[in-house]
Amino acid sequence: MENTKRDGKKVNFWLSNYEYQKLASVAYEKNVNMSELLRGLIFKQLGIDRASDGSDIIRNMFREEIKIQLKVQIER
Fold it and tell me: CA 44, 16, 54 angle in degrees (round to 5)?
């Protein structure tokens, strides 16, 4: 069965319970779903930080953005 809703690929990855809860909290505060939030974070990071060798780009992007978002949550 072909996906007629979207032209693209689905990506799965694991988050710790803590990371998931923090991202869910940010998504709730921004009134977006998790997919929208994560896509936005990926695109934001890709526009800012382009790794020269291309290795572990996504992992590093998420780590940096999660650190930023967690810092915001902790400082509240």
Answer: 40
- How far apart CA 59 and CA 46 sit, in angstroms, is 12
Rounded to 10 degrees, the C-alpha dihedral 58/63/66/71 comes to: -150
Query: For the chain, what is the total number of helices (H) and then of strands (E)?
Result: 3, 0
From CA 64, how far away is CA 4, in angstroms rounded? 34
- Are 44 and 65 a contacting pair, CB within 8 Å? yes
Q: What is the pTM of this model?
A: 0.52
Helix (H) or strand (E) holding 19: helix 17-30
- Can you tell me the mean pLDDT for 29-40? 86
Give dist(CA 26, CA 24) in Å, integer: 5
Question: 69 near 22, Cβ under 8 Å?
Answer: yes
